[in-house]
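Backbone-to-sequence.
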């Protein structure tokens, strides 16, 4: 399967193909240098599969986890590029999940004002969301994605076979983002999760999620308007991630909490609570409301104490509702 992302200044392909990790050479210039950026949970077999296809390749591996999407690791990757005398025409290959594509993408966007970038996502989260759309970022001082930019890859290569080594919790972590996509704009995608085993339809789930996100990004690349709907559940979700020091909840799990928070009194609430509980997400949490509000106040999506909440009244339809910070407490 192939999807095209057509933007004003750049267009690229998203290829969804089993086994494509074994054949990346049609999508790169193998005469250039390559730096594979990955984390310590990515199986070596994937790294070695890519390495043996390239002539000049090095690897940077950093510890897994959201806390490692940091300035420290950014500097270490930059240093490796400088020491290796990489040029703008050389490549970074982001191999891994959302933390990897964020860190590697931000490095690619800033090293010598931009170098070639190939995203090879190996998690459901990165396949349905994080690797697509051009958002790249670092965390700083316990604030999520507070340093970032928009930078699109040359292409995205999705090999669904890599999900075979993904732990169940991380598999569900990304599937939550796909469920979110169904809630805001694709009722048929949403319904997949309530009809049999969704894992039997993972290719369709990934494809439909990408299709919807690409459609939105093409309309609003820099998140000035309609792209904000992709943040459904994220205003509170990011706050929960920060509140729990990015340790207790994975990104998708925190988004699930955010969806439940923002969906109070909605007709579908009990259905999504049941499925999140089935997926092992602890929905009963105790938080200090004032701290959550202050975290949101410092979020990049907050402007002059106004935050655009994404509201879903009916599955498959979403709207943007500008909301005063002081009014957020009614959801907590």
């Amino acid at each position: 399967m192939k999807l095209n992302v057509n933007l004003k200044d750049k267009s690229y392909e998203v290829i969804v193909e089993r086994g494509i990790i074994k054949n990346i050479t049609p999508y790169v210039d193998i005469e250039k240098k390559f730096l594979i950026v990955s984390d310590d949970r990515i199986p070596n077999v994937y790294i070695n599969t890519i390495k043996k296809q390239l002539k000049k390749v090095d690897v940077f591996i950093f510890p897994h986890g959201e806390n490692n999407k940091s300035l420290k690791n950014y500097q270490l990757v930059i240093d490796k590029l400088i020491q290796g005398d990489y040029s703008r025409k050389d490549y970074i290959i982001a191999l891994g999940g959302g933390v990897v594509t964020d860190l590697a993408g931000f490095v690619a966007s800033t090293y010598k004002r931009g170098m070639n970038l190939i995203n090879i996502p190996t998690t459901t989260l990165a396949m349905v969301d994080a690797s697509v759309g051009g958002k790249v970022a670092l965390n700083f001082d316990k604030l999520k994605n507070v340093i970032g930019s928009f930078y699109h890859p040359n292409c995205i290569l999705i090999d669904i076979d890599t999900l075979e080594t993904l732990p169940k919790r991380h598999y569900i972590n990304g599937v939550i983002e796909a469920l979110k996509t169904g809630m805001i704009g694709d009722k048929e995608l949403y319904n997949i999760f309530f009809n049999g085993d969704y894992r039997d339809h993972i290719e369709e789930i990934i494809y439909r999620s990408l299709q919807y996100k690409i459609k939105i990004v093409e309309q609003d690349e820099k998140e000035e308007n309609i792209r904000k709907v992709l943040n459904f559940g994220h205003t509170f979700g990011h706050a929960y991630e920060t509140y729990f020091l990015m340790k207790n909840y994975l990104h998708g799990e925190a988004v699930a909490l955010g969806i439940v928070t923002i969906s109070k009194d909605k007709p579908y609430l009990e259905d999504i609570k049941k499925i999140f509980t089935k997926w092992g997400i602890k929905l009963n949490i105790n938080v200090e409301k004032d701290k959550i509000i202050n975290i949101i106040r410092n979020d990049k999506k907050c402007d002059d104490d106004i935050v655009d909440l994404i509201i879903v009244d009916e599955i498959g339809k979403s709207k943007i509702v500008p909301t005063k910070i002081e009014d957020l407490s009614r959801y907590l």
